[in-house]
Structure formats: C-alpha cells, structure tokens
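Changelog-adjacent note: as of this version, every example in the card shows the full chain rather than a window. The one below runs 693 residues end to end.
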Amino acid sequence: MVGGLRDAGYIESGRFDTRRFTVFVPSLIIGVFACFAVLKLLSVGKVSHAFVLLTYSTLVCVISIATFKAFLEKQGASFFGVKGPRGLIYLLLSSVLSGVALEALTLFGAPLGSPLVPADWGIKRVLIFALLSFMALAWLSRGHKLFQVNPDSLISKFKGEINKRSVVLAVCALLAAAMVCCWLALTFTLSFTSVALFGIAVVFPLTVIACSLRASQIPEWIFMSIALPIGLVLCVAIPPMTGVSWDDQIHYKNALNLSYVTSPEITNEEQKMSEMAIRLALGEDEGINREMWPVDVRRDFESRINDSQLVDIKDARIFKQYYPDQLLSFASLGYIPAAIGLWIGRLLHISFAATVVLGRVANLFAYCLACFWAIRISPVKKVLFVVASLIPENIFLAANYSYDPWLTSMVLLGTAILFREMWGDDNPIAFSGVISAAFVMFLGLGVKAVYFPIIGIFFLMPVNKFVNKRQRAQYYLLVILFGLFVLASFALPFLFDVGTGAAPGDQRGGSGVNSSGQLSFILNNPIQYAGILESFFVTTFFNPGNSSGYLFSFAYLAGDSPVDLSIASLNNPAVNLVPVLFLIGVAIFDNEDGEAWRHANKGSTIWTSIIYLGTYILVATALYVSFTPVGHGTVNGCQLRYQLPILAPMLALLLNYGKPLGFKDGTKKAIYLSSLLCLSFWTFVFVVSRCVA
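Full-length structure tokens:
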C-alpha cells in the first residue's frame, strides 16, 4: 500500500503530498459511497433512507480522510505507538480483524447461527462491524481528551473530603437507612431481596453525600452514586416484561433487531415478549400483571419464559427476518445501548429473563454515563444538571426499554460541551469543541429530530469569543447548515411519506386519524389551530398543576400501587407545585460557578423563550398530525414527558440572572439529599412495594 502511494506520487522523499491526496482519495471514497447510496435508493425507494445512508457515508468519509491525513502526515496520530503509513496499516488490519471477531461472537450467541458454519457468516455485518471498529479506533488513536480522567487528582480530591465529622455522618446515615429498611419490611411485609436492594440503593448515596463536605467539587459523582444504584433497583425489581413503560414493546423489538445488526434470529418467546404489552392491555392473562409481583408468581413467570426460550431454540422456532428500514433510520441510534446489552446477554448464554434485564441495565448505564460527563464538563449549572438528571421519571425511563433517555442525556451532554465553549474561559472559540457539541447533539436529536429548534442555543455564543467578524459569520453559517441538516432528517419522512398520503398516521389514535387530512386542516385553518394549541398548552401541557406527569409518573405503573402515595393521588394543586418550585429555585440560585451570569441579558432570554415555545409547538403539531383525529379540539398523544429532553438546558438559559447568586456547600448537600429521598421514595412506592411476599 505504501509503495503504491509512493509510486503514484503521493509520497515523495518521505514527505506526504497533502494537496494531491486530499483531491484524489476523498473523491474516490465519496464517489463509491454515493454510487452505493443511489443503488440503495433505487432498491428501497425512500428518499429519507437515502438521506440517512448518505449521512453515514459522509461521516465515514470524513473520518477516513482525517485519519489518513493525520497518519500519513504524522500529526500526532498513532496506533499501538506507531505513526505514519505503518500505523495506518495496523489500524486498518485491526479494524478488519475486529469486524471478523465481532461477527464470530454474534454468531456464537445467536440461537441458530454458528461461527463454525461458513454459510452463517454475513458479509454485510462484517463490513459494518469493521467500519464501526475503524471509526472507534481512529477516534481513540487521536487521544481524544473528552473522557480523560486523572486518577491521582481524583484520589486526592476524595481524600480532602473525608474527616472525622464525615465519618460520624456516614455512620448515622447507615444506621438511619437500616432502621428505615426494617420499618419497611415490618410494615409492608416485603421480601428480603426487595428490602436489601432498596436498602443498598439508599445507603450508598447517603454515605457518599455524608462524606462529601465540599459537595460542590464532586457533583457528578454524587449523581452517579444516586442514579446508578436506584436505577439498578428498578431494572431488577421490575419483572422481565413489556407493558411497563410507554411503547416499551416497540423499543424492545427494535433493540432486539438492532442487536443482530442484520439478519436477526427472533425466537417465538422473544416475539411474544414484544407483543406482551398489547395482550396485557386487552386484559389477557400472561401469568403476571402490572399490579403486584409476589415472589412466587415472579419466580414462576421467569421460569416459564426461560423454559419456553430454550424449547424455541431446541425446536428451531426462529423468525429470521431482515428489517433494512431500521438501519436506515436515525432512530436506531437510541437503541444502541439496549442492543449491546441484549448482544452481551446472548453471548454469555444467560437466561432469557436475565438477558431482558441486562438490556435495561445497559440503557441505564448509558444514560448515567452521558449525564455524568455532562455534569463534569459543564462550567455552569452543575447542581441543576444533577437535579434534572435525577428526576424520577428520567431514571424510570432509563431503566426500561426506551430511546427517550438517549435523547435527554445526549442533548444535555451536547449542551454542556457548548457551555464549556461559551462560558468556560475567555479564550477564542475552538471550532473543535463546537463541532463536538453539534455531533453529540445530533446523536440525541437523531431519534426525535422534532426537537431540532434546540440548536438555536448555538446562536448565544458571546461575541467576544470570535477573533473577527469573518470568523463569526463562518460560525453562524455552520450553525445554520447544521440546523438545516437536522431539519431535513425530520422533514424528509414527513414530506415524502406523510405529505403524500403514504403514511396515514398512527392508527392507535383512532379511526379518524389521517395525517394528510390533518395537515390539510392545519393549512386551511391556521387561526383555529393556533387556538387549539393555546388551549392545550395552557390547560394541560404547561399547567404547573400537572407537573407530576413529567416528574414522577412511572407510566403504566403509576397509580396502581397498593400503597398509592403519589402526588397525583393527593389531588392538591398546591402540593403539585412543590416539585416545580423546587426545580425552578435550583435553576435560579445555581448561578455561581463559571461566567454564565455575566452574559445574561433580555435578548438571550427572549431568544431562549422562542426556542422553548417553538420546540413544543413542533412536538404538539407532530402528534396532532400523526395521532389525532382530523379537526379534533385538542392534541392527543402529546404526553407531558415530552418536556424532559430540553428541560434542563432551557431552565439553565431562561433562569440565568445577571448577578452571581449561589448555594453554599451545605445547601447543595441538602439539595442532593432531597433529590435522593424523592427518587428513592417514589421508587419504593411504585416498584418495590409491589414485591410483596
């Protein structure tokens, strides 16, 4: 390879000819991928799919070009300590070997496939694995600093947190948690396992909070110590079933298909799992329900589905179906964590029930990791980010099959990276940081591009961050192009499917749902539709009295607990306002760290308000078109949880005051403790209390 490049004139006298390389190779790669995309378009017939394919192809091209250029010019890139053409060859060979290894492992975990049978190997899957490996290894070889941690500084930080007072507080916390667990066991006759899980989930974060006298220095670790153990309680306590969270049967099936990448092998029991929510909604007996999960009933249910899974594999009751539409949709990005969990479960050959739980755990871990780095990276509003990330409904969704946690956490992480560029220091803008923020933001928006107006916060970049007017104009142009790109990912399926009548809408909304007809109604009656939106927003969506719907709702579990102590059950508007006021108070007074308050002005507040309102107008309109009967007087299907993805960024910008308000460490610790108690209480009420012995 190196000799061929030298013979072609791209390497002369040990020097790489960048100009000739960047003309020939990119053209070749882009041409190949463009031809492939055209052929795919002709075979699939959907413009939106071709758009996704071209996007992925362009991303591969950009990474490939940057990697080739960096290695061949020896600009700091290395692989296994080797730079230059040799390092590039090592990188390519490692990517190919990784693709082959991942395919072998996939076949090893598959019900019917075997890595020892050449006919079972899929060339497409090997190529996809190789491309993914190449991009990951190329990224790692550049020594990206986003996730680098200094262990020594971390250890020293924790050493400075611990003293005699901290030890006393930790012991008190442990004793209090033990007493609470005993009281719960005696009062509600819970199983020992349930009490133990709940106790551990409360004791651990209590200990961390008690030991962190300077809580402001480790907010990300406090978040992780609370979110991860209580989230794991949810993952384990909820039986391996669907019909628990919103549309979890669809999310489970999509994650299951994605775990094979191509050519999935779906057993009969896995197919039944993806349809369980529908049968439960119809009142059919599945051997377990959403109301109570006694230990013996749960044990029998898990034993039955595990045995049924083994029989399916033994008798080859397998559905081998290919879903190309899924890979050609940005929504698949949100299923990556759960798909990895299911892939690992099959690889380890653990039970079917345990594999379902492992998919949830992987989804939870991805959410916690993204939020962890968002809190760590952001120079401002760290306490707000902790509290918003610990909203019980966010943790509940993360502990189940859903792509909403992916959207929420990635938007939060992208916002944190952007805040670091906006307010982290006084240095001129670094386009690498802005591109990182945009890339992470796109990963989140890919699953629900209807939230694309959030990109408008990029226009809040302070003027003093630009070297000159030309750089500022270039920045604004890049932001506009990025916004148009994300808009296209949302608009193309809408225009070419819904707009043409190819997609009649979601029939779960009723027989009167017709997307084309609804779109025509909106265009012909704009004033009437504006009134419908206003009424819906005022009375339902933005009504503070309904805040429990996006803060404490546990989907299909809410309100059915034998001990219903939910805020909604109190039917008291004043009580319903408490969580909202708490969240607003945190957003207002978390204004000490960083320099955000120096850039607060009426213009940014007005612009943020426009973004906030515009986003939810699009969200409501999307549900009105796809889920609501034509001409209906309100918006059906627009759930309150749809406020969560951009809640933290909007509060951080809307409630950014021009003076340094701030919390003392004691107040911060009280806020973290309140979040822990709130989250643990609702987890117990809605989940753990169902595991009655």
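Structural remarks: The radius of gyration is 26 Å.
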